[in-house]
Amino acid sequence: MTIGKVCTWMCVTILAAVSAVSTFGQDDKAGHIASLEFQKIKPGMSAQYEAGRKQKLAWHKSQNDSQPLFVWEVMTGEQTGSYIVGRLGQHWADMDKPSVPDQADLDEFNKVMGSYVESLVTRDYEYMPKYSNPGDMGGGPSKYAEVITFRVKFGHADEFLSGVARVTEAAKKTNWPPRYQWYALYSGGDVGTYVLVEDHPNWADFEDKPDQKPFSAMLQDAFGHAQAETIMHDLDNSVMSESSEIIQFRADLAYMPSK
């Protein structure tokens, strides 16, 4: 899919990227940092890895860890079968005083599952509330999420973000139904990487929605034909490449502290 097909993208799924990343509402007190590990499993070792992950879940409970540890499995794309593990809604200062010591956490990881992991990459993302339209997303992660990653041309970040901001302004102005969150890669990858995430409660929710106004029509309703064309041009002109994947939240492997 190319950025030139943004109309289709936004109409059907709201393209974007993360990862990566997190699919939960952010309140005013929560931080905006998502610190995530992308863990690739050695061939044939997924069952052993998941058993180790459950052991580590129990360890976090025994340590009275006060912070959730989220786990997703990558369902599509080049990283199919990999896992995304990390904490969301953090402030940078939270990393100076983790709920459990970093070294103890690493030692337990190496003990119960490290030998099953082929590679591990850490990336930090920053949630962008100004560009997001999350709605009421309480209750934790949805079962699935679509994650689209945009790589913006050098020197075109302002142009790209201006276009994204206008899209979100239009979505809110017209009460457009799709709900989504934007993240910017802060560290751990290519500069100029942005991620858009849309939640899906089940596979059926990925279907086209015939009663939903198309993206192009929504944009024109909000700003008129000429401005809508300018916004589309800004987006088309600023993006170098994009990629898409679907991830599944693994509640059975995640750690949620008792309230």
Description of the molecule:
With about 260 residues, the chain is α+β, with helices and mostly antiparallel strands. The protein has a single domain (about 5-250), classed as Alpha-Beta Plaits. It is built from 6 helices and 8 strands; from the N terminus they run αβαββαββαββααβ. Strands 1-3-2-8-5-7-6-4 form an 8-stranded antiparallel β-barrel. Helix 4 (about 155-175) packs across helix 5 (about 215-225), helix 4 (about 155-175) runs antiparallel to helix 6 (about 225-240) and helix 5 (about 215-225) crosses helix 6 (about 225-240). The longest helix has 17 residues, at about 45-60. The protein starts with 5 loop residues before the first helix and ends in a 10-residue tail after the last strand. Mean pLDDT is about 85; it is low at about 1-25.
What layout of secondary structure does this protein have?
Elements: H1 6-12, E1 33-41, H2 46-62, E2 70-74, E3 83-90, H3 102-112, E4 117-127, E5 144-152, H4 157-173, E6 181-187, E7 193-200, H5 215-223, H6 225-238, E8 239-249
Antiparallel strand pairs: 1-3, 1-4, 2-3, 2-8, 4-6, 5-7, 5-8, 6-7
Number of domains: 1
Main-sheet strand order equals 1-3-2-8-5-7-6-4
Which fold name is given in CATH as the topology? Answer: Alpha-Beta Plaits
* Secondary-structure class: alpha+beta
Name the poorly predicted regions: 1-27
Shape assignment = elongated
Summed over residues and divided by their number, the pLDDT gives a mean of: 87
CATH architecture: 2-Layer Sandwich
Using the coordinates above, name the CATH class: Alpha Beta
End-to-end Cα distance:
43 Å
The residue fraction in helices comes out at 25-40%
Order of H and E elements? HEHEEHEEHEEHHE
Number of helices: 6
- How many DSSP-defined strands? 8
